[in-house]
Amino acid sequence: MLKNIEDIIISRARDSEKLKLLKQYEDDIKTAKDIINGKLTYCEECKDYYLTKSFFSEKETVPTKICVYEDPINSGGNDYVDGYADISYSVCPKGHKHVVDRREYT
Ligand SMILES: [Zn+2]
């Protein structure tokens, strides 16, 4: 058994207090399990977890320059052509966009 849980059981705190502490463990364990099984997803901007199903997907197509020749010595010698990028985002419930896929084409 986890040492801290044992400490809670044998401590001199009141039973109601012990149960409150154990409840905290239960909640933390439930959250940890949901993170592992993918039910919760982290948003780096929010620094918080949300239900994975509350994220929504968004797609957009933006004009972009596609590198068709990479100068090995000077990047100023690179050649670019006009193209497009299809970008897929995963958007957190607060609206933070995270790129999950980007495909470029001409
Ligand atoms: Zn967010």
Question: What would you note in describing this structure?
Answer:
The protein is α+β, with helices and mostly antiparallel strands and 106 residues long. It has two domains: 3-37; 53-105, no CATH class. Helix content is 28%, strand content 42%. The chain has two helices and five strands, in the order ααβββββ. It has helices at 3-10, 15-36, and strands at 40-43, 48-51, 56-69, 79-91, 97-105. A three-stranded antiparallel β-sheet has the order 3-4-5, with no helix packed on it. A two-stranded antiparallel sheet has the order 1-2. Strand 1 (40-43) and strand 2 (48-51) form a beta hairpin. The longest helix is centred in the first third of the chain and has 22 residues, at 15-36. The radius of gyration is 24 Å and the shape is elongated. Bound molecules: zinc ion (ZN). Zinc ion binds at residues 43, 45-46, 92, 94, 96. Zinc ion (ZN) binds at residues 43, 45-46, 92, 94, 96.
